[in-house]
């Protein structure tokens, strides 16, 4: 007995594509604000780096030429680290999500780097650098290692933060624009606070233990500023990553998302063809 062709299911063709799936939902604005606030902690450290580290380099005895080479690590790390981190973050299958592990690792690396920079003179003195002699080679080595780690860690933080904001915004263009605006706003806040902290020369009195035999008033003030930077960044990061949760990503989800995007593209092209055909129908 032959089946009734009228009852057979019709397969979708290129002329009649399947309707596109619903767009991914966006998160609440509160979660977007929490993630964007991490930018204040990142930029606070950048401002301190710009305002305090060049004079500190000269105190350690690094020549001007080598100081310029040290600052090259910023653009070099930005050129290399962010694409690599972005590639692996997009494919991360951790149960903590795609972005949160990189944000947490970057914040921890910033804390380690800032500690090395602040205590470079003390660690150099413990390793054998004389206090009255300049340059101090061991302190310089510790400083350079910490400086490069700091730049790599900062670049490791920024990319996943922006990507997480894009994930939370979903397909909501208004929330995407709001997330970008909030990230820029918190960057400006971090800049203002960082440069203000770097300009204040009595912060070391809050942390009197920072002034040591190998570390003078300027060095102690730098340590105090970086302690505040560590506290601010880690606090904002812990609050954001605790409040905002990510679902575990799998390659199958990525293939499905690519298929959804292709179906949307096919649907749009079909509608355009239809409209152009109707437009040129003979009257």
UniProtKB/TrEMBL annotation:
Keywords: Membrane, Sugar transport, Symport, Transmembrane, Transmembrane helix, Transport. The chain crosses the membrane at residues 32-52, 64-81, 102-120, 140-157, 178-200, 220-244. Pfam families: MFS_2 (PF13347). It is a multi-pass membrane protein. One of its GO terms (cellular component) is plasma membrane. Pathway: Glycan biosynthesis; sucrose metabolism. It is found in: Membrane. Residues 1-10 have a biased composition (Basic and acidic residues). The keyword Transport applies. Coiled coil: none annotated. SUPFAM superfamilies: MFS general substrate transporter. InterPro entries: MFS_trans_sf. Residues 1-25 are annotated as: Disordered. GO terms for molecular function: sucrose:proton symporter activity. Belongs to the glycoside-pentoside-hexuronide (GPH) cation symporter transporter (TC 2.A.2.4) family. PANTHER family: SUCROSE TRANSPORT PROTEIN SUC1-RELATED, SUGAR TRANSPORTER. This is Uncharacterized protein. It comes from Hevea brasiliensis.
């Amino acid at each position: 007995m032959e089946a009734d062709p009228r009852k057979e299911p019709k397969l979708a063709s290129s002329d009649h594509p399947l309707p596109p799936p619903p767009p991914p939902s966006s998160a609440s604005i509160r979660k977007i604000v929490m993630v964007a606030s991490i930018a204040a902690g990142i930029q606070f450290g950048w401002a301190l780096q710009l305002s305090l580290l060049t004079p500190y380099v000269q105190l350690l005895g690094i020549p001007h030429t080598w100081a310029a080479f040290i600052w090259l690590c910023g653009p070099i790390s930005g050129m290399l680290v962010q694409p690599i981190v972005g590639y692996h973050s997009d494919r991360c299958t951790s149960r903590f999500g795609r972005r949160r592990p990189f944000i947490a690792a970057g914040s921890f690396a910033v804390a380690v780097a800032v500690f090395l920079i602040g205590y470079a003179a003390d660690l150099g003195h413990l390793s054998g650098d004389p206090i009255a002699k300049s340059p101090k080679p061991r302190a310089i080595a510790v400083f350079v290692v910490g400086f490069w780690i700091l730049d790599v860690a900062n670049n490791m933080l920024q990319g996943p933060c922006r990507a997480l904001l894009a994930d939370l915004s979903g397909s909501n263009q208004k929330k995407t624009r709001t997330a970008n605006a909030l990230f820029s706003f918190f960057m400006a806040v971090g800049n203002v606070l960082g440069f203000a902290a770097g300009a204040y020369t009595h912060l070391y009195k809050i942390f009197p233990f920072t002034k040591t035999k190998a570390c003078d008033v300027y060095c102690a003030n730098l340590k105090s500023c970086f302690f505040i930077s560590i506290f601010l960044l880690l606090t904002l990061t812990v609050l954001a990553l605790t409040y905002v949760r990510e679902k575990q990503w799998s390659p199958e989800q990525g293939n499905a998302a690519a298929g959804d995007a292709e179906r949307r593209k096919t649907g749009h092209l079909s509608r355009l063809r239809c409209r152009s055909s109707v437009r040129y129908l003979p009257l």
